[in-house]
Structures are given as structure tokens and as C-alpha cells.
Amino acid sequence: MHTQQITLAADAHILVVKMAGIGDLLLATPALRALRESYPAAQIDLLVTPDSAGLLNGWDVINDVIVLDKYLFDEPKQIVRNPQSLLKLKALLSRLHGGHYDAVLLLHHLTLPFGRLKHQALMRATGAKWRVGLDNGHGWFLNVRVKDDGFGAMHEAEYALAIAEAVGATTQDKTLYLPLTEEQRQQARQIVYADNNPGSTAQPIIAMHPGSGGYSVARRWPAERFASLADTLYRDYGGQLLLIGGAEEAELHQQVISAMTSEMPVRSLAGKGSIKVAAAIIEQADIFIGNDAGPMHLAAAVGTPTVAIFSLSNHKAWGPYTGGAAGRQAYVVRLNLPCMPCFYHGHELGTPEGCSTRDCIMQLGVDPVVVAARKVLGAQRVNR
């Protein structure tokens, strides 16, 4: 896959760059595990964004987490117009240089021109001997290159593992990982099994995420179809519904609840607890059903059977990832239109908002999602 493989010193200083949201960072955890297993004495630091900075706290694979708000530097004019941004960038570059890194691993595709310049500057600022990353023809500043065949040619988790392999790091455990504390799990149990809620003990627990995050709301399956799905599953299996999402998705949750016609106990947990508490809530569920978004990856990380609804985005790149682990269930439900995917296709970013008609999501009915959910819930009923 890569043009060369190197071996680092046992006590090497390694910087991993993954400036992305929670889902993308979770997809990097198998590669991070590979680095630690292969280099147990190394200093392994991680460069992330504020949104995902605390996600891996408590995981002994990582020595130090460095935070960069990449959105301050998304365009050249932002740096010019905001002197404070320039000062922050200068301080960060100084810190990176002071890390005395032997290798920098860039877990990003080189998609946009200014992004390539940013990545080059960051990697060179470290002074590291080895600059490792994906090469789609624009990776001239890398000296250990892993071939980038485009989005979806491999899953994003597999691309990250290939980059780790380029420095001699491998692992047998390719599952995603999210460190959760007993306190976070206890908070989740208190929310799920609330004493003052008569439906909180109903089984099975069905968690749904009808949102998608703000970057691409076009990925959202219509709220009324989530409602119809919930009603159908309630008629088949009973149970309760937990709607997962951030505080900004509270209105969307109410749309789902208002469209439901069954007596299924339902609660909106929009904004309840931290990201990790949300993950611990999903861990309590018997099934998770949601759009392509961060909570889908949380579900995969905590081992909850997952049904993922995909439309314009690339399921081969970002589908729920089980790492081939036995017993972990993940299903992707999507149409198969010739225009799909139009978001992250080939080597291009594509169109985050899709086309004007969004046939890929608007034509996806409830029945295919019900079929996937029954594979999970039906098997659980047999095993009880």
C-alpha cells in the first residue's frame, strides 16, 4: 500500500495529527492503539481540535493532547485579519518544534489547496525527520507516503491503520475505542432508568439520532420517517425510545415525537450530559439507529448494534466500523443511485448539501431500515 516502511526508535517521539470531529477521531483509535502496542516506550502525542479534545482523556495510549482550533486558519484572510490567531498559531508552532518529534503522522487526505499548505506548515514546524501521510499526488512534502486511492477505496479507519503501518505499527484489535469512566456510566444509567419516568424500564431500549451535525444537514433522513420507524418497532417489539443529540437538535427531536402515533415511551435527551455520557447512554441501548454522524461512531465504539442511514455521504469511507470483531453488528441502509455518493467522492470534497432534490435521502423509505433493525432486535428476542 505504501511506497516505503520505516522503523522508529523504541523511545521515539511521535505526533499524530487528526484535526477533526469526534467521529473521525474515533476512527483513528485503532491506528493509535497500533502505535502504542508497537512502540510501548514512545512518546505519542495527538493534535486535535477543541471539539474532540477531551474525547480520549483517560486512555493510556496517548501521552499528551495538543489543541488547535483549525477553524481560525481555514482561510488566509482569517490569519491576516485576526492578529490573535497569528499569535496563537506562532505559539503552537513553537510548542510543536519543542516536542522534538521524530515522526509526524498526518491522518488527513490532501483534498483542498489551502489545507495542504496548512498541513505542510505544521509538519515542517515540528522539525521531525519523518513526515508520514496519504499521497494523492499532492504529498510532495511527505517523505513516507501511503498511496491514497480516494475516499471509500478503503475505510477511513483502514487508511489510518495503513499510515501507522508505514512506521512499522500493527495491531490485531482494530475495533474503535472510547474511554469511559464508571462515573460517566453511572450518570448514563441514572438518565436511562429515571425513577420518575414510568417508561424508563421498558425493554428493548432503542436509541435514535435523527440529526447530523451542522456541517451537512442534508444527511438527515426526514423526522417523520424516524417517527414511523419507531412506531413500527414498538408494535413489533415494545420497548422505549431515546432520542440522542446535542442541545441544538431539541426541536428536531420534538418533530419526531409529534409525528409518532403509537404509545411508545419516548424521551428527548438533547444536550443531556457530555459526549461521553451520551456514549454511555448509547452503550445501555439494545440498538442504535441514526444518520451518518458522530453518534453513529460512538455506537460502534461502545459495541452497540448499529443501523446507519446513508445518503449523499460515502458509506465505504465512513460507515460504522467494527474492525472485523466477532459479535459486533453494524448495518448500512442506503439506496443505490448512480449519483451516489456526491459528498467525499474520489479525491474530491464534493457537495456537502447534495443536489436540489436529494433523491438519495428523500426516496429512502422506512421499510429497508425496519428490515435492518429486525435483524438486531429479532435475534435479541430469540436469545433472551
Quickly list its features.
globular; six-stranded parallel beta sheet; 384 residues; alpha/beta
Could you explain how this protein is built, in words?
The protein has 384 residues and is an alpha/beta fold. Helix content is 37%, strand content 16%. It has 14 helices and 14 strands. The strands form three sheets. Strands 3-2-1-4-5-6 form a six-stranded parallel sheet, with helices on both faces. It has a six-stranded parallel sheet with strand order 9-8-7-10-11-12, with helices on both faces. A two-stranded antiparallel sheet has the order 13-14. Strand 8, helix 9 and strand 9 form a beta-alpha-beta unit. The model has no long low-confidence stretch (mean pLDDT 92).
Shape summary: globular
Instruction: Name the average pLDDT.
Output: 92
Question: What is the alpha-carbon Rg in Å?
Answer: 21 Å
The SSE string, one letter per element, is EHHEEHHEHEEHHEHEHEHEHEHEEEHH
Low-confidence stretches: none
How many H/I helices?
14
Q: Determine the N-to-C terminus distance.
A: 44 Å
Q: Could you give a short account of the major beta sheet?
A: 6 strands, parallel
Order the strands across the largest sheet as they lie in space: 3-2-1-4-5-6
Structural class of the helix and strand makeup?
alpha/beta
The number of E-state strands comes to: 14
Helix content: 25-40%
Strand content: 15-25%
What's the short story on this structure?
It contains 14 helices and 14 strands.
